[in-house]
Amino acid sequence: MIKVAPSILSADFLALKGDVDKAIQAGADYLHYDVMDGMFVPNISFGQGILKTVAAYSAIPVDAHLMIERPERFVEEFAAAGARIITVHAEATRHLQRVLSLIRSLGCLAGVALNPATPIEAVRYVLGDFDLVLAMTVNPGFGGQKLIPQVLDKVRDLRKMLEENGLSAMIEVDGGVSSATAPSLVEAGADVLVAGSAFFGAEDPLAFTASLKDLGRG
Ligand code: DX5
Ligand code: ZN
Fold first, then answer.
1. Contact at 8 Å (CB) between 41 and 141?
2. Quick one: CA torsion of 104, 75, 177, 142, rounded to 10 degrees?
3. Residue 124 near residue 150, CB atoms below 8 Å
4. pLDDT digits (tens, 9 = 90+) for 36-45
5. CATH topology of domain 3-216
6. Which of ligand 1's atoms lies nearest the C-alpha of 139?
7. What is the largest CA-CA distance in the chain?
8. Is 54 in a helix, a strand, or coil?
9. 51-107 pLDDT, tens per residue?
10. Closest residue by Cα to residue 139 from 172, 111, 114, 121
């Protein structure tokens, strides 16, 4: 089953409610919520206050992607604000295992994200501690970038690593996901597709979402 997660970084912030509705009505599985601190990535987005409003309204779970330094400082607040999945970057914390355990202890699904240049070895010794691994398919910080094709090999390697260890964690891909790139990502082993500009720029978001989900049935 392929899941689709529209990134509201590409939404119209003056009409956020309508864009959340758009994602729900299109059949999206998660709302992807990109948090940027201007330190871990060269951009600032939004925080736990807006997430609380969005999560209280949204009928689908919020998938919070924390692109922030030392995410352990904020996971409790994001959990309290209503995030269902909380994903932290392996590069952003000195104590990855501790923060993943903390996320689970708060009743959320724990995710670990890897920048394009980070090897999958970064998660080898925490394999049982997460529910989702996010392979960044662009350098994080901005929507609308082009997918870095080398990451396809990384998705394949991650899939192999999970299979070899009998684990069912989800593999999420984020950045440059479109109708053109999604088939090879799914073929490589991705099961959650984040789409920002492609989703909110689609003429027919329902058809776009359905076509991505169909890739899992092939
Ligand atoms: C990038 C963010 C992405 C971004 C994706 O740093 O993590 O979630 O919104 O945007 P698109 O789909 O436009 O590449
Ligand atoms: Zn993201």
1. yes
2. -170
3. no
4. 999 999 999 9
5. TIM Barrel (3.20.20)
6. 6
7. 46
8. helix
9. 999 999 999 999 999 999 999 999 999 999 999 999 999 999 999 999 999 999 999
10. 114
pTM above 0.85, yes or no: yes
- State the distance from the centre of ligand 2 to the C-alpha of 86, rounded, in angstroms: 11
Q: Report domain extents, the chain.
A: 3-216
How far is residue 97's CA from residue 46's CA, in Å, rounded to a whole number?
A: 26
Tell me if 194 CB under 6 Å of ligand 1.
yes
From the CA of 4, the nearest ligand is: 1
- What lies within 8 Å, CB to CB, of 141 at 6+ separation is 36, 41, 42, 43, 67
Tokens of 101: 């355990």
User: Which pLDDT score is estimated for 3?
Assistant: 98
Q: What is the DSSP string of 104-169?
A: HHTTSEEEEEE-TTS-GGGGGGGGGG-SEEEEESS-TT-SSPPP-TTHHHHHHHHHHHHHHTT---
Asked if pLDDT for residue 218 goes beyond 90, the answer is no
- Asked about 34 being catalytic, the answer comes back as yes
Q: What is the pLDDT of residues 163-202, one digit of tens each?
A: 999 999 999 999 999 999 999 999 999 999 999 999 999 9
Tokens, residue 125? 């010794």
pLDDT band for 217, please (50, 70, 90 cuts): confident
